[in-house]
Amino acid sequence: MIEGIKHIIFDLGGVLLNIDYSLTEQAFVAAGITNFPQLYSQLNQSSLFDKWEMGQIEREEFIETLQKASPATLTEDKIVHAWNAMLLDFPVRRLQLLQQLRMYYDLLLLSNTNEIHEHAFNDILMQSHGMPNIGVFFDKVYLSHRVGLRKPMREIFERVLDDNGLRAEHTLFIDDSPQHIAGARELGIQTIYLEKGMTIEKDIFKNIKR
């Protein structure tokens, strides 16, 4: 851990929640949207998904736009299923770590997400661990579609710092997307880039006792 840290901001997908973007890609390609890999990825995405993640379009418009992009007839349920295919599981050790870390640090969640995924990942958490929502592990939760901002925008990091009276040099941000890490660093926030294959339980907080 970095010295002097008092506050930790966690990303969600790829850090706490296991995800596999390829599963959603495969599901949409199989459904007929063959250019889906060009529309959406971890590193880049089209304006449709940017607007969706910032709450600038409604669920109905998101669904209808994807329906129009497919030569086949796609029901809303099929689109929701394909969109949620990337969401896997919350390893119990990660949730235990959050409970332990909260005794020593302020914990915040900052996630680029959307209405459909929020419902799905909270459902995963409830079904697998009996927890009603991800917010029970944090002092404050910032979801892009609720605050109208998304990473790596400077404004969303400033919002988190200002809302909670945090000093950047005492704040650690953990994310698995390099562009988000770069955005946080511009404000002087300490960062850890969770590269592919790394996990918080194995590579960052492995010395914290169970």
Question: What is the mean predicted local confidence, pLDDT?
Answer: 93
Rg is 17 Å
Main sheet characteristics: 5 strands, parallel
The secondary structure category is alpha/beta
The count of β-strands is 5
Number of helices: 11
H/E order of the elements? EHHHHHHEHEHHEHEH
Shape: globular
CATH fold-level label of the largest domain: Rossmann fold
CATH superfamily grouping of the largest domain? HAD superfamily/HAD-like
The top-level CATH class of the largest domain is: Alpha Beta
* Distance between the first and last residues' Cα: 17 Å
Percentage beta strand: 5-15%
Helical content (DSSP H or I, runs of 4+)? 40-55%
| Number of spatially distinct domains | 2
- Name given to the CATH architecture of the largest domain: 3-Layer(aba) Sandwich
What labels would you give this structure?
single chain; 210 residues; alpha/beta; Rossmann fold; DNA polymerase, domain 1; 2 domains; five-stranded parallel beta sheet; 5 strands
